[in-house]
Amino acid sequence: GGRWRAEELLPFFDAALEAFGPQRLMFGSDWPVCLLAGDYRQVVQLCERALSTLGAAEQAAIWGDTARRIYGLT
């Protein structure tokens, strides 16, 4: 139920990117659980910030292309 700060969570994004790379990661949230400490908009903004140093194709992979590929979505 506490408040989080981006600076506390960004290292976890970095670790996941280093371990798996953008082609093996996909966006997701723990909504509605995240509402205990923030709102969905804040979760998306945190992800946007964490991915801002990646190229367009790498960001697209995480935001949806990986999910489309893995789940066979069109």
Q: What report would you give on this structure?
A:
By secondary structure, the protein is mostly helical. 58% of the residues lie in helices and 0% in strands. The protein has helices at residues 6-20, 40-51, 56-71.
Instruction: Report how far apart the termini are.
Output: 37 Å
Overall body shape:
globular
> Any low-confidence stretches, pLDDT <50, length ≥5?
none
Structural class label: mainly alpha
Listing every helix as H and every strand as E from the N terminus to the C terminus, the arrangement reads HHH
Profile the largest sheet.
none
Average pLDDT confidence is 91
Number of helices: 3
Number of distinct beta strands: 0
Helix content: 55-70%
Secondary structure: elements and pairs:
Blueprint: H1 6-20, H2 40-51, H3 56-71
Helix pairs in contact: 1-2
Structure summary:
With 74 residues, the protein is mainly α. Helices cover 58% and strands 0% of the residues. The chain has three helices and no strands.
Index terms:
globular, 74 residues, mainly alpha
